[in-house]
Amino acid sequence: MSNKEKGHDVAALRRSEVRLAADGFVLLAEGCAGELVARLLDVSQRSAREARDALGSKEVGIGSAAGYSEIVQRSPGRWDVPIDPQEFGLDETGMPWWPLVESVLGDDAELWVSGVISSEPGSPDQFWHSDSPHETSEHRPANALNVLVALHDVPMAMGPTEFARGSHRLTNHVNNPSLVVEQLIYQHAGTSPQTLVADTAHPVPEPWASPLTAGACLVFDDRVLHRGMANGSDETRHVAYFTYRRSGYSTDTYFETERSVHDT
Q: pTM higher than 0.85, yes or no?
């Protein structure tokens, strides 16, 4: 690689770092190559189909505590199936998002969980939520980053992920006692960009969403307010996810249940 190419990569990384720190999310300009996307989609569809078949007619609620270790319904019609990265066949440090993950979480960052979110036709907007809580009253760098990879083109009608720009600084319940951490994390109807700034001088954070092309990568701070938008199309939307954490960090807000669809 030439020095010019290296300089361009470093400059792009710095821009992504600044965008992520300011907005709480960044859309990477250079996403996954077509061959990798095709493999991720194939593994995701097969795993999702096997999990739904195993679930059968078993009762399943909303949220990780009401789901199974193999499948969780995050909101009506929106299914989360964890997939081991080895099944995806990934070289973790060779992924286009790894330099950004490494720069934020450290070179010992760990791939925490990975899988696929499948949003069925007709699934409604999720409630606004964040995925993990703040730990201190002052704002600190992220402990966890999520990477979403569009496994096919995702037009607005199919319901891409929507973010409240800069809200990763406003979801701090330690600093703002009017916020209830359980309502931030567990998808509460009363949580919105407006409620984050109620009775404060902060402006309401601007919502942002964009159609995605196959292979596009969205990286976001685990604390930013976001939601999957309604799928008004006739097709199921599949998005692979990869969640990284700072070494030693842990929270139980991803897969809380200990039951399996194979339990008798």
A: yes
